[in-house]
Target: Coiled coil domain-containing protein
Amino acid sequence: MSEREEKTAYQQKMAARLKEWNAEIDKLQAKAEEAGTDAEIKYRDQLSELRTKRDALREKLNHLQGQSGDAWDEVKAGVESAWGELKQSIERARDRMR
Model:
């Protein structure tokens, strides 16, 4: 696999994961709404934080396009870090909303 194909595959994989996390955030929002107004208010900040982290990850993914060499590695590391933060935040939110 060429470097270009590897980069494209990575970007597609991360975009698919981001789509999955978008769906998970939507599920958490629905769960908060179903629990009633008090729960929705309680989780509003948490959901806002998730969306902020999701948007930061999306921005990093967009920045990844067109990068090469050391810049690619640096931006990819940033994507991986943002991904880890988003994943942990979603898991914490999911645990709190049980």
